Each structure stands twice: as structure tokens, then as C-alpha cells.
């Protein structure tokens, strides 16, 4: 899936130092410079987070100036912030966008910091909607300005200030330190926020929306997307300065997949490699020889369970292999309680064993790669 981020790009500058005395000129601390850190904020930070999580993301080029926020921090304490605002030429931005093609993207994130790029948000959204992508907005203006967006994400104060109580579509409301509430496709969610020691809230909202969209691109349920977004934003506030999410910040623990895995092929390898990226531990279940014979006939498996288990254990993406003797892995899944189950594209969520226990992610089938096809080809070649 492809994602485009469009909005105000901010330059976040941090000046770190120490202070041991008060200035004789005014009652303010004298800060001795230790180091300076510069990073992207706003739309730029959303992009950096999505890139770090492996999402195919593009930052829209609007050709507009970038505002700079300089923060002075002494001995871990926030002293002051200096803003150099650069307002965009909103008419020029609109003209550029109305000539752009958005059809290649699955999601477009509008990162609004009220610096001018999205002054014509309603027209921009209408144009993007006409080409297919879902529009997700991190807002800084009134709800009616984002008419037509698939989803909006105000924080608690923005919800009140910008009249999002009138919003009829999908919405996520973040309330720092308390909970995340949402209504998506007419289903309501409430995700608690872990209590942590807060170092810096800068960019937490950008981390949240990046992690949420990351989940969408992985095929997670909306609930799971909200959970990992909350987890990612919570991690970000533990760090001073803007934080870039890492894979481990959004991984969801145990991932499960299962099958016969009789003759390993490209389809298997790609599914396993993908499944590994979704969690901290990938457990693979394989049918015992007796189970395979019951399901597929006396001619199968080609390789016995010990060989199949050993082959999977040599792969760098697989953490554990479990042999099960039942026709389905339900008992094992109930015992393990995985966070995510991954299956191939010949399944639907409802037909996956264990779908009521864990979130299910369907990995698209790679055409031309199946054990049955390989066996049939070998037989044809042998007979000819």
C-alpha cells in the first residue's frame, strides 16, 4: 500500500545545555551550549515515522517555506521556545494540488499545522476523494473545513475548540494521559493509555497518526490500529525531542501461522518473512504426518514432520515451530493466545481457525507458487 503525506512541514530545533548561574542582566539562567539537534516536524515527522516502520510513503512537495521552532532546554528543563513562522501561499498550493494525480495512493494524510498549506482543505479533500484514496486528517481548524475526509483525529482540546462534536464521520479523539476514544464505521472504541513519565510531548500526535496508518497498511483491524497508535505515541513522550518510532515500538507480541509446509517455496518464504515483521515472536504450527494424511491422502506429506520442522527452524524469521496432531490448530492457538494470525490469500478472515482469538491478517497469495502445483509439475516432468 502507498501513503502520501500532505501538509505543513516544520523544522524542530533543540538547543541543549546546562546552567549554573543567573544572568546579571535579567533574572534568567545563562545556558552553556552542549549540543544542537535539528529534525523534521509536522508533516515531515509523520513521513519519517512511516519510513522507519517500512511503509511506502511520499511527502508531497508544495514548494512552500518551512516554519522553524527552536526550543532551549537546560539540564532537562524546558526554558523557552522561539518560533519563526513562514506562512504558505495557499492559492499556489491549491493550484498545484488540483493538477496532481493521487490515484496511486491508498491513504493521504493531511497534516495541518495552520501554516497555510491546507487553508483550502475542503477543496483539496474533494479533489483527492475523486481519485480514490482515503483521506485522514490531523486537524488545526474547524470541523466543517475537512468535509469529506474519511477520518479526522483531533485531540481533546481541538475536539471542543473546533466543534468536532458535529462531525458525522469517522473520528479518533486523543486525550493525553487518559484514553483514546474513536468511532470508525459506526463501531465505538475506548483504548486506555499507559501511565508513563513524560519527558516531551512534541510530535506525539504525529507518531500516533503514523502508527495508526502503519496498522492500516498491514491490514490490522481498526481496534488493533488504535492500540498500536496509542502504544507508539506513549513511547514517543518518554523521549526528549521529536521521536522516530521503531518497529519494536509497534510490534504486537506473538504472531502465529500454520500449514503443512511440505515443500518450501517462494510463497511460503514471503508469507513467513512478512509475518515476522508484525510481532516480536513468530510461531509456526505444522500438521503432523498423521494429520496431513487424514487431510490430503496417503501420498502426503512428501517430507516427514521432522524434516519440515527442521527446514522451518533454519529460517531467520521463524522463532519456534510446533507440530500439532489435530486436523486444525485450534487447541494450540487457544493455548498460545497469539496477538496476530497470518494466513494466505486463499482464506478469508471468517474461515481462519482462531479468528475469534486474535486479529487476522491475510497475506496475498503469490500466483504460481503452491506445493500442489510443484508436485503436479514434478509428476508431469517425470512422466514425460
Written description of the protein model:
Strands 4-1-7-8-9-10-11-12 form an 8-stranded mixed sheet, sandwiched between helices. A 5-stranded parallel sheet has the order 15-14-13-16-17, with helices on both faces. The radius of gyration is 25 Å and the shape is elongated. Helix content is 30%, strand content 29%.
By CATH, the superfamily of the largest domain comes out as Ribokinase
Strand order of the largest sheet: 4-1-7-8-9-10-11-12
**Main sheet makeup:** 8 strands, mixed
* Number of domains as seen in the coordinates: 2
Taken in chain order, the helices and strands follow as EEEHEEEHEHEEHEEEHHHEHEHHEHEEH
Quaternary form = single chain
Strand share of the residues?
Answer: 25-35%
Q: How confident is the prediction overall: mean pLDDT?
A: 92
In CATH, what is the class of the largest domain? Alpha Beta
- Give me the CATH architecture of the largest domain, please: 3-Layer(aba) Sandwich
What is the CATH topology descriptor of the largest domain?
UDP-N-acetylmuramoyl-L-alanine:D-glutamate ligase
Helix content: 25-40%
Q: How many helices in DSSP terms?
A: 12
The number of strands is 17
- Assign an overall shape: elongated
Radius of gyration: 25 Å
